[in-house]
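Budget justification, computational time. The allocation requested in the original proposal was used primarily to generate C-alpha cells for proteins on the priority list. As evidence of use, we reproduce two of the resulting records. The first is shown immediately below.
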Amino acid sequence: MKTMPSLEERIKALHEEIDRVVAAYVDERAAQVIGVPRGVVEGTVLARANGCACEEYRIVKARLEAERKLADAQVSTG
C-alpha cells in the first residue's frame, strides 16, 4: 500500500515545480534579449514579487496567459 507524502514533502515538491516554471520562463525571455544578463531579465520580470516564490509563479502564469491571448488575437485578425 502506498502512503501519502507528508505535508512537508508536498510543499517541497510544489516549491520545486514553482522554481522550474519560473526559471524556464526567465530562461526563454533571457534568450530573446542577447547581451542582457539573465539576472537583469529575471529582476525585471519578477520585480513585483518581492522575493515571494508563489507570487513569482502567479506573475509568470499571468504573463503566459496574456501572451497567449495576444497571440490568439493576432492570429484571428491576421
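The second record produced under the same allocation is shown here.
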Amino acid sequence: MPFLVSFSDYLGNGNMFCFHSETKEIYYFDHDGGLYISKLFHRMDEYLKCCLILAQNDLSDADEIETWSEEVVTAIVGATIIKKWR
C-alpha cells in the first residue's frame, strides 16, 4: 500500500501503526498474524480518543479503571478491534 505512513512501533515488538496519507484511516501492521495489515480506525481522531481513554489505565492502579476503559473503547470500536490492538 503506497500511501501508508508508519507513525508508531507498537511496544517495540515490530508491529506498527500506520496512517493512510490520503484517507487518514489508521492501519495496524502485525507481522505475527495471518492478515498482516488491518484497518483499525476510520480516522485519526477516533484512534486518539481511544488512546486517551485507555491512557487512564496508566494513571491508576485500580482494576476497575482498566475494565471500565476497555468497555468504553469496545463500545466505540468493537471487540474485534480491541482484540487485535491489545
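A brief technical remark on that second record: The chain has one domain: 4-85.
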